[in-house]
Amino acid sequence: MPVNSSTSNSKLIVQSLASFLVLTVGFVAFVGTGVVHGGSGTNQWQNNVIKAERYLYAGESFKYVVTGSSMAYRLLPEYLGEEYSNIAFASGGSLTGLQVILERGGELPSTVFVEMNDTLLRGQDKEFIQKLTSPVFNGVKSAFAAFRTENQPVILFKEWVKGGTGKEPEAGGSVDPDIFASELARHAADHAKQPDPEQLRSVTGELKRAVDALRSKGVQVVLFEPPSHRSLQESVLSTSLRTYWETEFPKDHYSWVPTPNPDEYETADGIHMTGGSARKYAAFLKEHLGK
């Protein structure tokens, strides 16, 4: 008697679903054992998501948290110490990191470092925050580590193949003179302009609300400007922003880290510190906090 094709297809679908369910449950259980450490992303967006998720779902609380852009991104956890978490995002800014802190809930850090420079003009990445804090996905990822971005099978396989540890690599120590000159010229052109007044007022208002929200909860907020090439640090854009923000966040009411001598720090392109300089600046921040 011939087998009904629809019945055969139904059995195949059920078997496929059952296999998928078994594999999924097995993978969730395997990741839940803590044997895997997670991996780094395959692109900048994934790396930012992984960094944010590690902070949001960390079992422990952090005493100090650093927010900012790709400039503060260079301050790797091993430079800062176990009590620190760095949620600075490449191509992002401090406003996005501050919102991640406010979204986490639970015990807040005692101190939050906020990078203050032109990257703040990018504003908060609302799309990033929306996807990161979606109630459904947020609940699943909070409960099951296997569904977090760093534990995606493709990322874990990549990490296994290259023998990585899931950590961000240190910035290279050598600087290419030609690349440096080209990038410095590009950044200099951008820094030769005054900031847009309306945009500046908007992001400053957003920043002040986030900072005051943290301060009202007993969090110490420390504002800092990472060192860049002297020509950029003294540019029209940087000088205008610094003057405006020092008025909006006066030093007798807000904590500012003194800006060190930029000539003592090396950058690869005028704005991004090399690994050695990033390590040196991390020690400078910690020394300031100790005082």
Overview of the molecule:
The chain is an alpha/beta fold and 291 residues long. The termini are far apart. It has 2 domains: 1-35; 60-125 and 168-290, 3-Layer(aba) Sandwich (Rossmann fold), CATH 3.40.50.1110. α5 runs parallel beside α10. Helix content is 53%, strand content 7%.
Keywords:
13 helices, Rossmann fold, five-stranded parallel beta sheet, alpha/beta, 5 strands, 291 residues
Brief write-up:
The protein is α/β, with parallel strands linked by helices and 291 residues long.
Total E-strand runs? 5
Average pLDDT: 84
At the fold tier of CATH, the topology name of the largest domain is Rossmann fold
What's the number of domains?
A: 2
- Which spans have pLDDT < 50 for at least 5 consecutive residues? 23-33
Under CATH, the homologous superfamily of the largest domain reads SGNH hydrolase
**Count of DSSP H/I helices:** 13
Q: Could you spell the SSE succession in H and E letters?
A: HHEHHEHEHHHHHEHHEH
How would you sum up the major sheet?
A: 5 strands, parallel
| Strand numbers in spatial order across the main sheet | 2-1-3-4-5
The helix content is: 40-55%
What is the global morphology? globular
CATH class annotation of the largest domain: Alpha Beta
Category from helices, strands and their pairing: alpha/beta
Which architecture name of the largest domain does CATH use?
A: 3-Layer(aba) Sandwich
Strand content: 5-15%
Alpha carbon gyration radius: 23 Å
Task: Tell me the distance between the termini.
Answer: 87 Å
